[in-house]
Specification:
It is a single chain. By secondary structure, the chain is mainly beta. The chain has a domain of 142 residues: Lipocalin (Beta Barrel), CATH 2.40.128.630. It is built from no helices and 37 strands. The strands form 8 sheets. It has a 10-stranded mixed sheet with strand order 13-12-11-10-1-2-22-23-24-25, with no helix packed on it. A 4-stranded antiparallel sheet has the order 6-7-8-9, with no helix packed on it. A 4-stranded antiparallel sheet has the order 14-15-16-17, with no helix packed on it. A hairpin with a 6-residue loop joins strand 36 and strand 37. It is globular.
Length: 409
């Protein structure tokens, strides 16, 4: 995880008065940390989690940087930045030794080669990697900071964008986004060309920029039909470096899903099914996962590949390991998550993982899970309103090899 920010819980409200569809908007009363979506393949050996350093290759906790849970954290290569309510501290992730500590109040935090980018209502400040010296970057407040391969993208509430060099903090470009961004949960996600964001209502709008904030494309994809009942809701199901998935949520009379290829904005799938995840195979769309009314894996054309008697939840993240499809199933506004291993060609259940979670129940909740691959194992990252966890599983049999869980209340 390279960064985290202050996020807003998405709740369902009508998209427009008298309209036939609705969309997801934030609930300002709920503010929970949300990790940036993890890459499908983790190339970092050491990752920062809850003020601790986890070695993904060794599948072990190697350093405890902070005894108390940090407010925010971010890392770049082997430098970790941890923010409390009044201080920002830097650590060497290889040794666990603190480099410096300076007074700072960060509302959003991201890391780059030149140090930590701290966002507040008063603007953005870069704290130098060497000594933590504060250098002003921008007087404008930000709702999201995104690491872009050596640069940092700042997203402002007025829909403007800025990109700063990760070492110097100097501006390298600016732009605009055609819709409002509600924090990292609904905001931009980095990819090899730059970053993309999406807005969903009666239609899906995808806006992608390059590493200088210049618009690559802004495309609109219809979702609703005039004949859809007023109870038809659409949601962002997946947005990562390769795929954007939008579909109905809790669809009953109508189930519909659309998949967009991020690289060029081409719509690669549109079917009358509630797609919750796109299955990637070396950059190509290999399958579509649905769980309502039954668990199925579909071809991109919509043709059934297999169905399973296992009851999965309304949201999912999935990664493929050879002929094993690993799926994390969860509900986006309820606690808990499952982990399953399916035979990719037939849908036969191979195993169910033992996910370690705190026994927490809440009336207002946000829940998000991301799976990735690291050193031939499955890495599961989950963020709920009241807990975060990082767990590592063997894809062959679902054995849990590591688990670290922290409460966030």
């Amino acid at each position: 995880m390279r960064g985290s920010g202050v996020l807003l819980l998405a709740m369902l409200v009508p998209a427009c008065k008298g309209g036939t569809t609705a969309t997801i908007h934030p609930d300002p009363s709920v503010r929970a940390p949300q990790p940036a979506p993890a890459p499908k393949v983790d190339d970092a050996v050491r990752v920062l989690f809850g003020g601790k350093v986890v070695d993904l290759k060794a599948r072990a906790l190697v350093h405890v940087l902070e005894k108390d849970r940090p407010k925010l954290e971010a890392s770049f290569e082997d430098v970790a930045y941890v923010a409390s309510a009044t201080e920002l501290r830097a650590y060497d992730m290889k040794t666990g030794v603190r480099r410096w500590s300076v007074p700072a109040t960060c509302e959003i935090l991201e890391a780059a080669a030149g140090g930590a980018f701290c966002g507040t209502s008063g603007g953005v400040v870069r704290h130098d990697a060497g000594a933590g010296i504060a250098v002003p970057v921008s007087p404008k407040s930000v709702v999201q900071l995104v690491a872009l391969d050596g640069r940092v993208l700042g997203v402002h509430a007025d829909r403007t964008l800025d990109v700063w060099d990760g070492r110097s903090g100097l501006s390298t470009g600016s732009g605009t986004v055609p819709f409002s961004i509600y924090g990292a949960r609904e905001g931009f996600v980095a990819n090899p060309k730059g970053a993309c964001a999406a807005s969903i209502g009666r239609e899906l709008q995808v806006h992608c920029v390059d590493r200088s904030a210049k618009t690559l494309y802004t495309n609109t994809y219809p979702l609703a039909k005039p004949t859809d009942p007023s109870s038809t809701w659409f949601a962002r199901r997946q947005l990562d470096a390769r795929w954007m998935v939008a579909s109905t949520w809790f669809g009953r009379s109508v189930r519909r899903g659309v998949v967009v290829r991020i690289a060029d904005g081409v719509e690669v799938a549109r079917i009358e099914a509630e797609i919750i995840a796109a299955i990637d195979e070396d950059g190509a769309l290999d399958g579509l996962l649905v769980t309502r009314p039954t668990t199925q894996l579909l071809e991109p054309s919509g043709k059934l590949r297999w169905s399973s008697a296992e009851k999965l939840n309304d949201a999912a993240s999935a990664v493929a390991f050879g002929d094993t499809l690993v799926v994390s199933s969860y509900h986006p506004i309820a606690s808990g998550a499952d982990l399953w291993g399916f035979e990719r060609s037939t849908g036969k259940t191979r195993w169910k993982g033992d996910v370690s979670l705190l026994p927490i129940a809440h009336s207002k909740y946000s829940n998000h899970v991301e799976l990735s691959r690291a050193f031939d194992h499955v890495v599961m990252r989950g963020t709920e309103s009241a807990q975060r966890y990082l767990e590592i599983f063997d894809p062959k049999d679902g054995t849990r090899r590591f688990a670290e869980t922290i409460g966030t209340w």
